[in-house]
């Protein structure tokens, strides 16, 4: 019997559950290209970074559907293609294939690829060796960066935030591993906290007790480790009694909001979950934050895949950018749900750094040639790391900002 796609939670679905979808792939290639009437030029008409780089169908969404079919029906053994893991793990999980396929064919090529990853992990073929280090780090240190737990709240010294393990706070700031632990990024959580305090929020954090949301683990297909993290996180978060959870990381946001409810046996989070950009837009609209200082600059917005395609947040960052005095906002040719991924997600940057860098180069090139902007603005620490590395290495004059930092500058928080 064919199991329909909605009968099971995403993190319990096996390849068998996608049999009907896999056989139904029409080989139409909508998963590789910009949605028809969004196309403005041949140069920027594609949407799958993996297919664009490798020019071979197994790297595309369609290719994954056909690899899945062959494995499912026993037409293919792992020994037949030593490159199999590379085909499956060069995908950045950007979701562009699924976004476009759903419009016409109602299939889920990205979820099929995630089920393929889970199958490879089960059979000892995946994830890639570089991902094993990341998983070990999360298991030993509760973060993917091999950092001791004692470093986790270093960014927040002198900010006077509540420790929610000792006292209640209405709003819990879930910081996320990357901005909490990467010394080049601690300005993002600091400015997020300062802005929320300036707006009068009763704000706390989990301090050293915050643990990885598990997003990178989920994306590389280690369902067992992800399920354990999801359960631990929900227990920790619900114990705080916070009314809302705000995070400045799109990966954490997607994990808490959309992934946890799809993990069998994980209870619901008893709080509203918001991305910082979404909440800042609201606070600005309600007059609780005033964008007073001018920032004279022409900027474009990079939609992080985890915030845009995966969670549907496109307007909030654009509203904010348009409201900052002095900023001239201009769209890249590919934008919103047709945005070009930065190349950093889904474990691609960890295992295939050259591919991730080339994908970011293409994003920067598009930003330059189609907008003439002075700066790319985004709000995802992974996008910032990946795009930032390429800009630094090439000595490019294009600037890169986290939106939270621009809001802090315009509001004038100290
Ligand atoms: S995965 Fe979807 S969009 Fe891609 S070829 Fe198959 S049916 Fe078409
Ligand atoms: S998720 Fe993105 S990188 Fe992966 S196959 Fe789909 S379009 Fe390509």
Tell me what you see in this structure:
It is a single chain. With about 425 residues, the chain is of the alpha/beta class. The chain folds into 3 domains: about 110 residues, no CATH class; about 150 residues, Glutathione S-transferase Yfyf (Class Pi), Chain A, domain 2 (Up-down Bundle), CATH 1.20.1050; about 120 residues, 3-Layer(aba) Sandwich (Rossmann fold). It contains 18 helices and 9 strands. The strands form 2 sheets. It has a 5-stranded parallel β-sheet, sandwiched between helices. It has a 4-stranded parallel β-sheet with strand order 7-6-8-9, sandwiched between helices. The termini are far apart. The model has no long low-confidence stretch (mean pLDDT about 95). One iron/sulfur cluster binds next to helix 3.
Largest sheet: 5 strands, parallel
CATH architecture of the largest domain: Up-down Bundle
CATH topology of the largest domain: Glutathione S-transferase Yfyf (Class Pi), Chain A, domain 2
Our Rg estimate from Cα atoms comes to 21 Å
Strand-residue fraction? 5-15%
Supply the number of helical segments.
Answer: 18
Q: How widely separated are the two ends? A: 62 Å
N to C succession of SSEs: HHHHHHHEEHHEHHEHEHEHEHHEHEH
Which ligands occur here? Answer: iron/sulfur cluster
Task: Note the quaternary state here.
Answer: single chain
Count the domains: 3
Residue stretches low in confidence (pLDDT < 50, at least 5 long) are: none
Query: What class do helices, strands and sheet pairing give?
Result: alpha/beta
| Net shape | globular
Mean of pLDDT: 96
